[in-house]
Predict the structure.
Amino acid sequence: MSWIERASALLKAVILAGGEGTRLRPLTYWTPKSMVPVLNRPFLEHTIAYLKNYKVKSIILALSHHPEVIQNYFGDGSNWGVQLNYAIEDNPLGTAGAVKNAERYLDSTFVVLNGDIFTDLNIADMLSFHRGKGAKVTIALTWVDDPCAFGVVETDSDGRVKRFTEKPSPTQVTTNWINAGIYLLEPEVLKHVPANTHYMFERGLFPLLLELGEPVYGYPFSGYWLDMGTPEQYLRLNCDLLLSKAKSALVSGLTKDEVCCDEDVIIHPSAEIVGPAVIGSKCRIDQKAHIKGPVVIGPDCHIGDSAVLEVAVLWEGVKIGAGVSLKQCIIGTNTKIEADDQASNGVVTFTHKRVA
């Protein structure tokens, strides 16, 4: 193990995991966005596995929306080989406010991750950059073609941050490097964050630190990065993982043409499945059904006779009637779709509400 890897083993992590995911409604009314299934495992489980890969084992989960869902699933983290602590907000405190609420756990350099970001960023390399610059804050930066929906970060030739512009208009764009939602911070910067107050990194703490002349740096990287906070991006993440365009530390061995089934799946001999696909436990796929990947089918789903699925993610307990055609869809937990119905390019929930 290199000295950088040994150093990252001492890092603590704060995951901003508790939001309801307004952009993923109506899928997240009853569950935090970080618990939506990705390849049939909670998104947060993928994030914990990613951190563990960098020897980060002390993790604080900042929660507000239905914290019991996460607490009941993960407990103290021992089943995942990590130590989990919880910082629960009575009211949403914003990105910096949520970390301030976890301050009692933070006594050395720590990493913060937004709870809806999937990435392969090398934390150990970012830590080396952070310490080499003597930074108080280092912000991971990723390049996007259209930065207008994000926070743009301008840096000088040494990487020191000069200016932040949140969601600039096209005429305000000066760079395509955006805030990737991953930060390394020294604990003393939290003294500038008011307690029990809604306060943001992007509009509050980071601009304040620039005014105070504190060393804030940007760390550009070119690896995989995706904000899965919209239905389109959530579907894309599942597809990218199935197509080997991205890799998860939680799931190994997937190939882009593979069909992965749990042992208790029942598939009629006349059904046709073209990978990549992941099919959860207790699923039943009836005669002449046609499934063309990338497709994820959650546990306890039933796919009826001659149903067609192409590029879809089905959550747990979905019932698809005979002759149904689904393309480019996300189907929420316990949804039943009647025979011969069709849906494309949208979300369908158990209330049969569709979101284009």
Remarks:
- Helices lie at 3-8, 43-53, 67-74, 94-100, 123-133, 201-211, 231-242.
